Amino acid sequence: MWQLTIPEIGHFALILALGVSLIQGIIPLVGAQQGRQEWIMLARPATQISFALLAIAFGVLTWSFYVNDFSVLYVAEHSNALLPTVYRIGAVWGGHEGSLLLWIFLLTGWAFAVAQLSKTLDEFMIARVLSVLGLIASGLLLFVLATSNPFERLLPAAQDGRSLNPLLQDPGLVFHPPMLYMGYVGFSVAFAFAIASLLSGKLDAAWARWSRPWTTTAWIFLTLGIALGSWWAYYELGWGGWWFWDPVENASFMPWLIGTALLHSLAVTEKRGGFKNWTVLLAIIAFSMSLLGTFLVRSGVLTSVHAFATDPRRGIFILILLTLVVGSSLLLYALRAPKSTLGGAFALMSRETFILLGNVFLVVASGSVLLGTLYPLLIDSLNLGKISVGPPYFNAVFVPIMIPVLFLLAVGPWANWKSTSLNQLVKRLWGAAVVAFVAAILIPRMMGEFTLLTGLGFLLSFWIIASGVLQIVRQVRVGKPTGSFIGMQLGHIGIAVFVIGVTMVGAYQEEKDVRMAPNDTVMVGGYQIRLMDVGPAQGPNYQATRGNFEVSRHGNVERILSPEKRNYDSSAMPMTEAAIDAGFTRDIYVSLGEPLDNHAWAVRVYYKPFVDWIWGGCLLMALGGLFAVMDKRYRLRIKN
Amino acid sequence: MIKQLLISIFICSVASASLANEAAPLAQDPIVEQRLIAISEEMRCLVCQNESLAGSRSDLAQDLRREIREQIQQGKSDQQIREFMVERYGDFVLYRPPVKPLTWVLWIGPFVLLLGGLIALLLYVRRRNTAAPKIPLSDLDNQRIDELLREEK
Amino acid sequence: MKAKFIIPLILFVVLIGFLLVGLNRDPHEVPSPLINKPAPAFNVPQLAKPTVSFSPEQMKGQVWILNVWASWCIACREEHPMLIELGKANVAPLIGLDYKDKRPDAIAMLAERGNPYLLSAFDADGRVGINYGVYGVPETYIIDKAGVIRFKQIGPITPEILEKLIYPTIAKLKSE
């Protein structure tokens, strides 16, 4: 009986939320422009109510999945009675409508957090910030209600759902989209602060100080979200790759690059009052990239393994939304930015310049990724034909642009604000340079062979690590390090760890495609892998063939790996589930292929040295962000 | 008697150890296969939603890999094989866009952008310097300023 | 100095323009590089008569249609009624290319649903298909009197495509 009304409650909550968001978006904003106190006071309560309503809507959808309510069309399309509970929850955001609802839910969540944690912020400012967030939420709610309603009914209800794509039935699915969206959506806060300060005409250092912890937190989530997606692709897709420059991957990477530039630029604006215009522009661009990414993934404009099912109406709607939000903010920028004052002066050789230099490279890198991702579309829309732009292009262009950034990472923190001397930098860094060169020459030799690219990888990563260690040693002598300092070190060392992982795996991985019958062995990376047996296995919603492989080294059996080929009940496509022995210094990866004659199987084995350092580096970066946010300067603010 | 038993046990264990074979590579010729992977990694699988020709399991991808393998064995160069594919499927099949007037903006663009950005940066910092007077500060001053900034609310 | 602040907005508007045009395009549709090139030569046995072979050479001097199909191809069943109609209209010889199929299955399908083709060539291993740039069956080529491919349709033929593209193209090529 309740099934007859619960989804409608969710639908109704969305309609109410649209109304409240519109009020939240318009009234306090107008109130702030006109100085009307009562209108401004509506901002916080409206935000709280919006969040509550979205929580209800999202809760209802989750409930519908949990109880297998196949009278809801979206549930029937993405879930199935045999689906394990945890994947039923993950399926809530497995499709376009649900993931969009998650987006909006998180947006109101962020707005709610801003409303609750900003009691000491000027009322006019907070009204504007919450209003901007309300306007964005309104636009998206309108989109959902008009074209992508997750509560649409399927009557009569289906007996059973169509189930979730087997590729998505994985723990990674449960966490990757929410993390990613927390990041994407989180940049809306920095965006809202930027717009609020443009509107108020007060483009001072205060908005930067307020923006920073919010931006850093969003950045942490985005870092984790992207890392999770990459790791998931690695162990789930069976071909051992971890980044493909797919348009949807790029759509998440571009905001990350801009967000990183923004983080550093905010530091300068907060400390030195400089770069105000540039930082505001970056804040607008970062969120614009998030919105653009949302458009690209859902409009059918680009070919991608990730893209959601498309509908031209949706594409037009998001495009209009994108145009309105970004267009109006860039217009506001063009009108208001020239009025801001300059910050403190700084010399050509100074920390400010190094940060700005890093910004230039990061923005150009992001621009190149955008160019490569959209170029096929550009060419096609000019009727000049169809071309593809894939990994070879991105690797050829992106890597050279990032090399100077990696170099700067070690230098910047040693430079003084305002002015610094080249001699002093050389004095501080020559030790790190020596360590870097030694590593660049020694490690490739130890691992196998030396190539220019691998040498460069180790040169830069050890350059960064050595410089970081020297900074830490120096700081510890002087006094207790701040959260900001620890954050910076972890963040920078995190990148170095990432580069080591990428270099090692890229240069020294081993792959063998072999034919194995029971008792056959194959050697890879110094490990011996022996096929013990292949037999049937059963899962909650699939039948599988499982191979058991014994992994040993120097005669000692270390581990049994059991890759499977699964046939899911609800889907025709067979799925390969690789088995991985993950270790600090290497992964051993075994994938079961096709059955051959004579009880033999096609088997693919990989030895991937230091591959987990790729995601370990990302974790370190995120941890660094956490330390930076927890810096006591911000905690004092919250306690007040 | 025991000696015979031991000998037969010994022979059996040696025999079963030798049953553990080194697995044979799937490919007939690993060197050809390596070239195949290198070439097909840079090509698109046309029936897939953005997978490379090297990794795709689709029928067409298998047929095309077979075709490329044969051409490698016939001694064709990488360039000739690429031309073969482009003649039939167009530039769309190449993940590495060929450098021609159509793609000059694509290949040169990032570096033009970078140059522009660096020049703009240089001009900006120069302009800032002439606007405000430079007061040389000592290292100690700078350190104190850093500490003050850190403690600043 | 003020002018530079409007640059981001201008760049954005240009971007939106491209995206708008892009919305109306299909990123999966790949135009054929074989248009206006000679139809690749081949010599394969016929489907119904394995001892007799077919080659495009045999069609020189006529405008003709090559339709790539297979019994396992679901979209081909969609377009089959259009092909029957095209065959009946008798404007140009309709030759089938049975792609990567099994003879019994293919013959059974034609028997069940009707055979619109003058004959079907049997491309067992798909090599002819590769030479013609086939990637998504069904595909249809219109070849002129000199043996040059002048038109390619990727995907099933709909009534609209038949009316607006195929008949007019054939008429135009015949008058050359």
TrEMBL record, chain C:
Coiled coil regions, renumbered to chain: none
Entry keywords, A to Z: Cytochrome c-type biogenesis, Disulfide bond, Redox-active center
Homology family: Belongs to the thioredoxin family. DsbE subfamily.
Record's subcellular location: Cell envelope
InterPro entries recorded: Periplasmic_diS_OxRdtase_DsbE (IPR004799), Redoxin (IPR013740), Thioredoxin-like_sf (IPR036249), Thioredoxin_domain (IPR013766), Thioredoxin_ResA/DsbE_sf (IPR050553)
Domain Thioredoxin: 33-171
Pfam family, one: Redoxin
GO terms for MF: disulfide oxidoreductase activity
Organism: Polynucleobacter sphagniphilus
GO CC, one annotated term: outer membrane-bounded periplasmic space
GO BP terms in the entry: cytochrome complex assembly
Protein name in UniProt: Cytochrome c biogenesis protein CcmG/thiol:disulfide interchange protein DsbE
Domain of life: Bacteria
UniProt main location, coarse: other
Keyword Disulfide bond assigned: yes
